[in-house]
Design goal:
- The structure is a single chain.
- The protein has 2 helices and 3 strands; from the N terminus they run ααβββ.
- It has helices at 2-23, 25-79; strands at residues 96-99, 113-116, 122-123.
- A 3-stranded antiparallel sheet has the order 1-2-3, with no helix packed on it.
- Strand 2 (113-116) and strand 3 (122-123) form a beta hairpin.
- It is elongated and about 120 Å long.
- Residues 32-59 form a coiled coil.
Length: 125
């Protein structure tokens, strides 16, 4: 019972001291200053965030424009035909290719066989 009375007594003392603070105009001035500082800090944070959003939106517009330009360039390039010239004269055709033996152990000393492109048969050199 004594512990409960002590708790009640401390709560009442806290309320009385709080009530005396509330009656004091200096307390209100101090609380008002704190609130004004918090408000100014919040306004500054909002201004910084607004600047960042503006910068990001400008960057995004630039990126969107660059993307559109690149798509247009790709479309232009893909619509053009590209002529690639092979090195050397184009009228020479080779009818034969050299083929190495597949098993070098069995065919050592033999010359490479030549296969005809047209017939697909081996030709002895």
């Amino acid at each position: 019972m004594k512990t409960n009375l002590k708790k009640v007594k401390t709560v009442i003392e806290a309320l009385v001291s709080r009530a005396s603070d509330i009656d004091d105009p200096a307390y209100f001035r101090q609380e008002n200053k704190k609130l004004k500082l918090n408000l100014n800090e919040s306004k500054n944070n909002i201004n910084k965030l607004t600047e960042q959003v503006t910068t990001l939106s400008k960057q995004m517009e630039y990126i969107i424009q660059e993307n559109a330009n690149l798509k247009a360039q790709i479309k232009t390039l893909s619509s053009k035909s590209i002529n690639v010239q092979q090195p050397g004269p184009s009228n020479i055709k080779t009818n034969y290719i050299a083929q190495r033996p597949k098993n070098l152990n069995l065919l050592q000393g033999n010359k490479p066989k030549i296969v005809s492109i047209e017939t697909g048969r081996f030709i002895t050199p």
